[in-house]
Amino acid sequence: MNKRFVALFFPHLKTDWLAIRRPELRDSPLTLSAKEKNRVIITAANRAAEKEGLGPGMVVADARAIVPTLTVMDDRADRAFKLLRGLGEWGIRFTPLAAVDGDDGLILDVSGVPHLWGGEEPYLKEILRRLRTAGYDVRGAMADTMLAAWAIARFKKGYPIIAPGKQAEALAPLPAAALRLEPETTERLQQLGLTTIAKFMSIPRGALRRRFGPDLLQRLDKALGYEEETLEPIHPVELFAERLPCLEPIQTRTGIEIALQRLLNMLCQRLQEEGKGLRTATFRGYRLDGKVQEIAISTTRATQQASHLFALFEIKLGTIEPDLGIELFVLEAPKVEDAGPAQVTLWSGSSGLEDTGLAALLDRFVGKFGAGAIRRYLPEERYWPERSIRESTDLREEPQTAWRTDRTRPIHLLPHPEPIQVTAPIPDYPPMLFRYKGVLHRTSRADGPERIEREWWIDQGPHRDYYSVEDEEGRRYWLFRSGHYRDGDSPEWFIHGFFA
Fold this sequence. Notes:
Oligomer: single chain
Strand content: 25-35%
Largest sheet: 6 strands, antiparallel, barrel
CATH topology of the largest domain: Alpha-Beta Plaits
Number of strands: 19
Radius of gyration: 33 Å
Number of domains: 3
Number of helices: 14
CATH class of the largest domain: Alpha Beta
Strand order of the largest sheet: 14-15-16-17-18-19
Structural class: alpha+beta
Helix content: 25-40%
């Protein structure tokens, strides 16, 4: 399949954006400004300001002298990038590969896409029509290479679609600046009378390299397709993803559900064919107004069951607002894992963590109550209590060591020990009283101490003496003293967990 690219050029990007927000500015001279070396200069101008002779680089004071009614607004260095990124995300409805191109353009990789719109001409016309309807002054072109499309969009008048393999003929009459050369190189070419690409395209490569360096040849090769350019898309294309364009905008929940089911069936079919299972998925809806509605799910184990995935998405479908309608649905699976075929059960009974019903139940809980509602922990061979466990996101993961059962441990371990105030009779005795979060607890029985030394190869500090204590109301706690009583200094006490 031949590569095809669309270049979009926004000559008045930032002022168009302001005019969309404030329509009264559209037909009056408008510029943006920024400070540069103790001067305030123009960084962008709309069409009305350009007709008055104003443009980027001009000092604002001089511009006001020429046009007293000029509107000047502050510019921001990142404004163009943010605007182009937003427009690029909007353009994903036309192709999954959209990239920001400098401060005034976008590049779309449209290989194999235009036939969905009836061909290249209606495809490009539809993109430009929508952008112009939104209020942007935009020009576009299509060619086999990114650089050729960029040059045609900015320097060529007339039909903007270059037939496959015809970029050399299209570039020939254009100025040397159409190759995005360095200003110094462009100026030297003009001084030698090489004002168009045709005048130096046929010069021997060795002569061009000696006179202008390798950059000119590299640019020429990229424009003609002899050297490939890389595209950095706004959103990397996921290996497992499905798209569903809509002939008519979808505004109802029923329509959204039908689209989701179709995408899940297509995606799960691919996953089954390749022996993969889904762990995370994102469902996006691209609205007519350019906004994107998005919901995401995750699973505790790799799955290929479309019905189960639909049930997880269904919990969040109510958050999607179609507004005027959704014209494109995209389902992506950024995280997949190997998944073998499901084993047929020969008899009924629980299969523990291998039970797919348990995984489905946990996924429903997580979808309804949030990712932090349910956690699975595995043991670690560590001394320090808070380091002796780790969180696992996979039900199939096996522990590398057994749970320690020779010592009593609380069911609920605090992620970080919390300080308490205690009254202890003598060193090495458990506290008679302790106060935690303003509540006084009287100890009725206690076990300990159990000394746990700090892991010196990780950090330095005092050891801990742990006590299991029970208060007068029968509630049990895991407390510890940090260090010894020395020279009249009282060591700190902490609470670290709760027993059942």
